[in-house]
Amino acid sequence: MIYSQDYARSIDDVRTIVRHAKLDHKNLTNIGQAIYYPAAHEGQNLDDIKLLEVDDHILEAITNGQEVCFKGALNEKVVFCTESRTYDVKEAEISNSLLLVKNLKLAQATSRSPIKSPKGGVNTSMDSSIEEEDPETIDTIDEVERKDVVKIFHDYFELRQVKPKYRKIIDLLRLTRYAGPENEHLIDRSLLFRFKQLLDTVQCSKDEFQEGLKIYRAIEIDNRVRMLDLEYEYRVLTLLLSVISENSWEPDAIDKEVTLEAMQGIIPYEVVNGMFDVYTCLSERVPGRFQYREDLVCALFAEKILQHGLKFHIDEFLVTWQEALPEGFEVNEQYLRGIGIVDRESSVPCVRGLNEADLPMNLLGRLDLLFRTKERWNLDQIEPYIECFATPTVGVTSILAKYTRSLVVKGVRMYVSKH
Question: Positions of the region Disordered (predicted)?
Answer without folding.
Answer: 115-136
